[in-house]
Amino acid sequence: MQNINNYLIKNIKIAQFLILFIFTLTGFSVTKDYGISYDELEYRQQGFIVLNSIGEKLFPEKAKKITEKRDISYPKIDEYMGVSPNNFKIQHTFYSLLEYIFFEDSKKDEVFYFRHYINFLISLISLFVFYKTLRINFDRTISSLGGIAFILSPRIFADFFYSPNDIWSLFFLICCLYCIFNFLNKKKIKYFYFLPFFLCLAINVRYINIYIYPVFIFFFILNNKINISLINKIVKQIVLLAFFLFIITPELWYDPKGLILNMFGQLKWTYPTEIMFNGQLILSSEIPWYYLIIWILISSPLVYILYSLFGIFLLIFTIQKNKYSKRDILKFQNSIIMFLFLLIPITAVIIFKPDLFNGWRHFYFLNIPIIYFTCFFLSEISKVNLKYFKQFFFITLIVNFFLLANWMYKNHPYQNIFFNKISKKYAYDFELDYWGLSNLEAIRYLLTIENGAFQISNFDDESRADFALQMLGESRKKITFAKTNDLSSKYFISHKNKGFNGDMYSNKGFKVIKTIKVDNIEINRILVRDN
Fold this sequence. Notes:
This protein is of the alpha/beta class.
């Protein structure tokens, strides 16, 4: 029996290595296929604003020489804070520092591709930490299936490369969970002090991420007697959290008292944007209470949603009936933490009604508990003595893995447009290519049919196909971008988000020469002047 177990473990390890190798090789080889997201340009600027501010404080003469040599002028952090609703994220300062050291004379496309490679590297580390987190609760097989589900989450897979914030938020929260589980389960004190470090990074990226800390404190107190030693530890941890947060958060350098107001201020944007939701154009400040729930349900693989719901039901049923053994008590405690990890943000959105847009990308970290409860369900089902019954669920999941992988391959590099089987026919009722990632392919197409210089215009301000020029090399010099809606241009480009505002131009001497589709859903079109 021992030999059989060793054989199975060895083969699982080989399978894990192959999956990791394929994912790594695939990721680094397809990075340049992805376009640029609109947010990347602003956050690049933010990174240099912070870097310049630090330079002016620590090395004023050198900072002055650099800005004079490059003939650039950065606003002060407090000035920028007055015009931008975004908080400063630590990773963008890190990006800018690396760019300054290694890419001083590089072209823009090299700079942004470098950022995409770093993003994917962080995603790779996220996979590893997530697997290790699952292993605290489940066996190798089920944890490996959870890791595959992490990779084969189409919407999030695409963000592994170009998302400037959402993947970092996911990464830091996974690290927080890893620390929490290791400390509560294994009593390793080092994880108690690692937690504030990763938590401050998570808060820096998304203020809402602070919600995980009260959950930890609750279970920490629940597992211990309240005494001076316990209170002393919590105080030390809070001091560390505040210290780390101050170091990496420029807003605190200039306005410490305003941080809490800024946190709540970010719930509502100064200028609400118009979004397409459920077939209607609405303001982001007026989204219905079920906005987040609907987006998760329509753009996640159905098998993950169903299995996670089954897992949550089993958790509630088992706790209610008190059917778990003492050996499983830590696993069930971890599962309750994960349930709160899922429930609290959704409840907060329903109660506080923040401005939301672009689907659920700001909450992609909720995919962590969704996959966790998928694994929880499989773990509980595997205990059932009905052989074919439990095999059905495992086989169904694996078949879905192949179907998802095939879909992602066929629709590469637009996995971000994924809708599951039930919701796909309603895709045009929701936001699609909200970041204009398909504009890069559109411009590359025009470069293949045009030998000389040519002029392009956007259909409207939100198309912003000119952003995609950042991802081109010398060929960008052939392209001139005219003002929005300039009818003197030869070409018009529009990506599908709220609707194709370029439809009116079909009656003004323009015709469609190319469309870009994902799973037969049109996300971009190019028009040429017909003369």
